[in-house]
């Protein structure tokens, strides 16, 4: 079979209807970005900006560790020399356990999982659930110097209800 182009040879309009059709940019809907906010919106991205992006210098890079992970790996960490055995429990610095713990700004211990061992944890931040679970198992939590400074800074930023009355 011959190609469509070859079959159209000799035809005045090559299948485009009357000779008055396909004359200019009107057939395309305009030139360039014409119609980008009307009849050709689907061909163009969103025009309006939404939201706010915080500058990278203001954002803290946070590494997170679950309390379950610390509890399950406590014996292994003690064998490797990362954690210390203290009586029935273990003393663990979360910065040593977290991935890139010494390169990030904040290491936070989260409260996912169960705590069966007595843990004495040191980290920059703790979730409320993590503090509660460690305390219930007979352990303790301690903030690093950077974590204490960060906690004091956030306390200054949030107004107390007693100050308002």
Provide structural commentary:
The protein is elongated. The protein has about 160 residues and is of the alpha/beta class. The mean pLDDT is about 90. The N and C termini lie far apart (about 90 Å). The protein is built from seven helices and seven strands; from the N terminus they run H-E-H-H-E-E-H-E-E-E-H-E-H-H. The longest helix is centred in the C-terminal third of the chain and has 13 residues, at about 145-155. It has helices at about 5-10, 65-70, 75-80, 95, 130-135, 145-155, 160-165, and strands at about 60-65, 85, 90-95, 105-110, 120-125, 125, 140-145. A hairpin with a 2-residue loop joins strand 2 and strand 3 (about 90-95). The strands form two sheets. Strands 2-3-5-7 form a four-stranded mixed beta sheet.
Strand order of the largest sheet: 2-3-5-7
Q: Report the helical percentage.
A: 25-40%
- What is the number of helices? 7
Radius of gyration: 33 Å
Please give the number of β-strands: 7
Mean pLDDT comes to 88
Element string (H = helix, E = strand): HEHHEEHEEEHEHH
Secondary structure blueprint with pairings:
Elements: H1 4-8, E1 62-66, H2 67-72, H3 74-80, E2 84-86, E3 89-93, H4 94-97, E4 106-110, E5 119-123, E6 125-126, H5 128-136, E7 140-143, H6 145-157, H7 161-164
Parallel strand pairs: 1-4, 3-5, 4-6, 5-7
Antiparallel strand pairs: 2-3
């Amino acid at each position: 079979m011959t190609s469509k182009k070859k079959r159209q040879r000799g035809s005045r309009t090559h299948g485009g209807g009357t000779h008055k059709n396909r004359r200019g940019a009107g057939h395309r809907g305009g030139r360039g970005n014409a119609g980008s906010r009307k009849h050709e919106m689907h061909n163009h991205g969103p025009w309006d900006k939404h939201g706010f992006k915080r500058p990278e210098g203001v954002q803290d890079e946070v590494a997170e560790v679950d309390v379950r992970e610390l509890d399950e790996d406590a014996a292994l960490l003690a064998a490797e020399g990362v954690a210390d055995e203290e009586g029935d429990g273990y003393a663990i610095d979360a910065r040593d356990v977290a991935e890139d713990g010494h390169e990030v700004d904040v290491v936070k211990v989260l409260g996912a999982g169960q705590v069966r061992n007595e843990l004495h944890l040191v980290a920059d931040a703790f979730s409320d659930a993590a503090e509660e679970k460690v305390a219930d198992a007979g352990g303790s939590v301690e903030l690093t110097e950077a974590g204490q400074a960060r906690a004091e800074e956030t306390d200054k930023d949030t107004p107390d209800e007693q100050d308002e009355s």
